[in-house]
Amino acid sequence: MRSLYSHVAWRCQVVRFMNWANWIDATSAFLAIVLMAFTASIANGIIASMVAYVVLWLVDATQAAIRDECVKRGWCSTPEPDIEVVH
Questions:
Q1: Is residue 46 situated within a structural domain?
Q2: Distance, CA of 48 to CA of 42 (rounded, Å)
Q3: pTM for this predicted structure
C-alpha cells in the first residue's frame, strides 16, 4: 500500500509536467485544481474547468479571427516581434 506522501508526490508530478505555456490549458487546469481544493468537490472542479476551457477557446479563436480580418483589410498592422534574430 502506498503512503500518503507517495500519493501526493505522484499527483504533483502530473501537475508539474502539464503544458503551462498554453494559457487556455493552464487557466482551466488551475481553475480545476483550485475549485477541487476549496469546494471539496471533484465534480465542481471538472465542470468549471470544462466550461472555462470552452469559453476561453472561443474567446481566443474570436480574437484571432478579428485580428486576421483587421490585418487583411488594412485597418491595422501586424505587430512586430520583439525578438532579435542573430545570424
A1: yes
A2: 10
A3: 0.64
Does residue 79 lie in a domain region?
no
Q: How many CB atoms lie within 10 A of CB 35?
A: 20
Beta strands in 1-87 (DSSP E): none
Amino acid at 35: L
SS3 content of the chain, % helix, strand, coil (to 5): 70, 0, 30
Burial of 28 (0-12, 13-18, 19+ CB in 10 A): buried
Phi, psi (5° rounding) for residue 29? Answer: -65, -45
Structural domain that includes position 66: 20-73
Q: What is the mean pLDDT of the chain?
A: 78
Number of domains into which the chain is organized: 1
Band of the pLDDT at 69, cuts 50, 70, 90?
Answer: confident
Helix (H, G, I), strand (E, B) or coil at 34: helix
Residue in the structure block whose three cell numbers are 474547468? 49
